[in-house]
Amino acid sequence: MLDGQVTESFKPEPIPTVRELPPEEWDRLLVFEPFNSKGLPSPERTRILVVENPAREIVGWWFLFAALHAEPLWLREDYRKAGTTRRMIRGMQKLLVEVGAGSAFALIAENDLGHLPPIAARLGFERLPGALFWLHPTPTAGPKEK
Predict the structure, then answer these.
(1) Does the residue 129 lie in any domain?
(2) Rg (CA), the chain
(3) Residue 138 domain-assigned?
(4) What is the chain's pLDDT, residue by residue, as a tens digit (146 residues)?
(5) Which of 68, 73, 59, 55 lies closest to 120 in space, CA to CA?
(6) pTM for the full predicted model
């Protein structure tokens, strides 16, 4: 707008749809990484929120899933030898299989980041990108009262 006159027509962007994606539509995610290489999660423990543009293309997603955490891990210092740690890792992998889980998260405290990541990598852990944050639902996030 110049001097009170419209110089070009204004077309607002269409509002995208945010909705829960039902499991029968999850195959639509297989065009995205990591799903095309690692597969889809279990619908018994996962819910997926998607953002779709007016053409129904998925332009965003956010997963809510029950995640297993393999922690805390403690081993008395005089027993911190590679053989003992490896046996603990094998034992935890066996537990994961027994409960039907494909993976679990394990946190390394900030003060241990200097020396533990190389050891964890040698033991088969995969470092994930990013930082861990905690989301709490706000009182306004719940169902609206009628």
Answers:
(1) no
(2) 23
(3) no
(4) 455 565 567 777 789 999 999 999 999 999 999 899 988 988 988 999 999 999 999 999 999 988 888 888 888 888 887 788 888 888 998 999 998 887 888 888 888 888 788 888 888 888 888 888 888 888 776 655 54
(5) 73
(6) 0.64
Is residue 84 located within the same domain as residue 47?
no
Tally of structural domains, the chain:
2
Domain that holds residue 108: 77-122
For residue 123, how many other CB atoms are within 10 A of its CB?
Answer: 14
Q: What is the token pair recorded at 15?
A: 């509002």
Question: How many beta carbons lie within 10 A of that of residue 113, not counting itself?
Answer: 9
How many angstroms separate the CA atoms of 91 and 75, rounded? 14
φ and ψ at 58, to 5 degrees? Answer: -75, 120
Is residue 54 classed as helix, strand or coil in its secondary structure? coil
| d(C-alpha 45, C-alpha 34), whole Å | 18
